[in-house]
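Dear U.,

For the methods section draft, I wanted the exact inputs and outputs in one place so we can describe them consistently. I've listed the two proteins in the order they'll appear in the manuscript figures. Please don't edit the C-alpha cell lines directly; just add comments below if something needs changing.

First protein:
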Amino acid sequence: MFEYAHIIIPSIILGVFSRLSMLRSDYRQYPSYPQGVFSHITLGIVSASLGAVAVPALAEKEFAAVTFLALAAQQFRDVRSLERQSLDNIEPTELVARGTAYIEDIAKAFEARNYMTMLTGLVVSIVIYFLERRGVSVNLSVLAGFIVGFAVIIYFNKAIRRETVQDIADVRPATITFEGPLLAINGVVIMNIGLKASRKIYQENGIAVEIIPKNENGIATLGNLGQRQAIQHNASILLGIRKDVDEPDFTPIARRDPHTGNVVMAIVTMEPDVECLVQAVKSTIVLESAKRKPLDSRVGRKAAD
C-alpha cells in the first residue's frame, strides 16, 4: 500500500482538517478541553484514515478492508450513545438543565461529523486516484485533491450550519409584573412566587423577553418543550443565573401564550442586562428534534391562510 501514499496521506490530512474545522469548544464547554477535544481529534484521525484507504483497498482488490467502513459506522453509532450517556450523567449537576432534546441534538451532531470526516477523506482519495489513472501527473492530482477537499470542507461546514432562534422569531425585551403572587410577563402568567423576598428580587433584578415567531413554522418549533429548555439553559450559561440548588423560584421558565404562540421568559441573572438576554436568546440554536415546518404541507398552508 506504500505506492498509494500520495493518495492516503493528503486524504487523511484533509479529513482531519475537516474535523478540526467543525470542532468547537466555546462557552458551552462541550466537548470539554482538553480531554474531550483530544478524543474527538483522535476519532477524526480514525475516520479520515478509513475514508482515505477505501479507494486504494478497492484498487488492490482488498475487499475485506472495505468492510471496515461498515464497522466504522457501527462504532460512530456507539460514539453517539456514549456522548448521550456522558451528557445524561452530568445533567443533574446543571443549575438549569439542558434537557433531553438538547442532549440528543449534541450526540447526533458528533456522530454526523465523524461521517463527514470520513467522506472528506474518501472524496479526496477518489479525485487523486482517478486523475492519476487518466494520466495526470502525481503533483497535479494531489493539488486537485487538495482543492476539491477544501471545497468539500466548505460545503460541509455550510451544510451543518444551524438555524438560531433569530432566524425563526423576533426577540424583544418584556415587562415583569405581579398579580398578587403571580409573576406575569406582558400579561402572560408564568408562575406563583409565594415568598415576598423572591418577588422583590424579581422586581429589582429580574429581566424578561418575549419571543415572537415569524410564521407558523416558528410557532410550532417554539411550542416544543425541548426548544424552550435549550433557550433557558443558553441564557443562564451566558448571563449567569442567580440561584443555587433548592431555589425553584429563580429557575427560568419559558411559557407559551396559547392565544398567539408567543413565548415569554423571565430570569434573574448575575448580570441583569436585558439587551444581553435578547442576544443570548437569539443565538440559541434551533434543535433538529424540535424543528417543525407545517407550512411545507398543503394542510398547514391552508390552515395558516
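Second protein (the one for the lower panel):
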Amino acid sequence: MKKQYPIGPVMLDVAGLSLTQQEQEKINHPNTGAVILFSRNYQNPEQVTQLITSIRNTRNGDILIAVDQEGGRVQRFQNGFTRLPPASWYGNTPELAESAGWLMATELLSVGVDFSFAPVLDIDCGISQIIGDRSFSSDPNLATQLASLFRKGMHTAGMAATGKHFPGHGAVALDSHLTLPIDTRDLDSIRAKDFLPFIQLIKDGLEGIMPAHVLYPNIDPNPAGFSPFWIQQILRQELKFNGTVFSDDLSMTGAATAGDFPERARLAQEAGCDMLLVCNNPDAAEQVLDSLPITEDPIREQRLRRMQGKPGDSKACKNTEKWQQTSLLINQLIENHA
C-alpha cells in the first residue's frame, strides 16, 4: 500500500473552477498541506463541492481546504450562500455574532471547506482602511466579547477558528498587501489593548492564529510573521497558544523585505509558522514547495489536524429551522443598515 503523506506546511491556491494537471501535481507534493479558495474558484455550491472533492481525491493523504469568509468586504462565496455583514455591525446585537459564526461555518462545512480564516481580532483604531469595519469594534472589550461569540458559533458548527492579525493590524494606515506597514507603538500599549481578544480566544480554545505583515520597530526588528520574538516568545510562551500559526500570504508586498520566496518561507518557518501561505503566484508556490526540506513534524501535524472541519450535508443544512431563522435575522440586520 502506498504511504500517505502527512499534512504538509504549504497552503497554495488554484486558478479556476476545476483543476489543471499541473495543479494536481502541486497538490500531491509532499510539502503541500492545504488549498485556499478565492472568488474565482466559486460559481455555486454544487460546483465548489465538486472542486473540493477533486482536490481531496488528488491528494495522497489528507489536505485542508480554507477560504476567507468573514462577511462584509471579505466573503469569497456569495451566490448560494447567506450574505454576511461586516463584523462591526454586530455591536448592537451581540447575540447575533454567535449565530452568524455558526451560520458561516455550517454553510462552508456543507460544501466541504474545513475552515474560514476568521474571526478578525484587530481593534479598529480609526486609522486602517484595510481593517476598518472588518474589526468587531474600536472598543477592545466589546471586540473581545463579539469575537469570542463568533468563534463560539463556529465551534458549535464543527469548525476551527483562526484569529488574525497578531499582534494587531488596526493601528496602521497602510495596506500590507501593497507595502510593509510600520506600527511605532511600544509593547505595553499593544499588550494593554490589542492583546485582549487574542488572550480571551486562546483561553476559549482558539485553534489557529495568523500574524500580521506589520513591523513594530520599537519592539522587534522583524515583521511579526517572521519574528521569533512575536511568535515564540510572546504567542507561544507568554500567551500559551498551542494551536497552528499560519503565515499571512508570502506573496504580499508586506513580506518582500524578507527576501525571495524560498527565503520568506524559510524565515517564516524558522520564526515558528506551522503553515505557509503562497497565493496568486503559481511560480512562487512551486519555488517554496521545492525549496523547503521534506520533514515529518508530529507536533505540526497534530496542530494542523485540529483545523479539520466536521463536514455537514449541504442539502440538509438549509432545511433546518435554526439555519432559516438565523439567515432571516442576518438578512434583517443588513436591511436595517441599508
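Candidate sentences for the figure legend, describing the second protein: Residues 87-337 form a domain with the TIM Barrel fold (CATH 3.20.20.300). DSSP finds twelve helices and ten strands in the chain.

Thanks,
Y.
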